[in-house]
Design a protein that fits this description.
Shape: elongated
Radius of gyration: 28 Å
Strand content: 5-15%
Number of helices: 2
Helix content: 40-55%
Length: about 140
C-alpha cells in the first residue's frame, strides 16, 4: 500500500512545462531589450557628468595653487604639482585630499598651461579617448 500512495502523490504534483519556461524567458528578454538601452545611455551620461565635476574640482585646486604661488602649474609640472611640491617656495599644498583622479574612463586628464583656451586647459577626450565626438565620446573640457 505505501508504494501505491506514493505514486498517486507524484501524479498530483505539477511542475513547469517547457512552454511556460520559454514564455517567461521571452518576456524577460523583451524587458531587457526595452530597458537595457535606456540604462546604458544613463550610465554614459553619468560618466560625462562625473568628468565635468572632477574637472571643476581640479580647477578649484588649481586656482588655490595659483593664489598661493602666483601662477598655475606648468604643463611639465602637471596636475601632480597639486599634491607634490615641484620646488616652488610659496607652495602650500597639498591641494587635493587624494591623488589626482583618472577620468571616468580610466585615463589621465590632459592638462596644459598655458592653454589654448585660457591660462590652462584641462580636459578629457571622453569614452573613445580621441578628440571630438558626441554622446559618451564627447570631450569634457574646463573652458566650456
Amino acid at each position: 500500500m505505501p508504494l501505491h500512495g506514493m505514486s498517486e502523490r507524484k501524479r498530483g504534483t505539477r511542475g513547469f512545462t517547457l512552454i511556460e519556461i520559454l514564455v517567461v524567458v521571452v518576456i524577460i528578454g523583451l524587458l531587457a531589450a526595452l530597458v537595457g538601452p535606456r540604462l546604458f545611455s544613463k550610465l554614459g551620461k553619468s560618466k560625462q557628468a562625473a568628468a565635468k565635476l572632477q574637472i571643476e574640482l581640479l580647477g578649484q585646486a588649481l586656482d588655490q595653487f595659483r593664489l598661493d604661488t602666483g601662477r598655475y602649474p606648468t604643463t611639465q609640472e602637471g596636475l601632480e604639482a597639486l599634491n607634490t611640491n615641484p620646488g616652488i617656495e610659496k607652495w602650500d599644498g597639498p591641494y587635493l585630499k587624494k591623488k589626482v583622479p583618472l577620468d571616468p574612463w580610466g585615463r589621465p586628464y590632459i592638462y596644459r598651461s598655458p592653454g589654448e583656451h585660457g591660462e590652462y586647459d584641462l580636459f578629457s577626450y571622453g569614452k573613445d579617448g580621441a578628440p571630438g565626438g558626441s554622446g559618451e565620446n564627447e570631450d569634457v573640457t574646463s573652458w566650456e
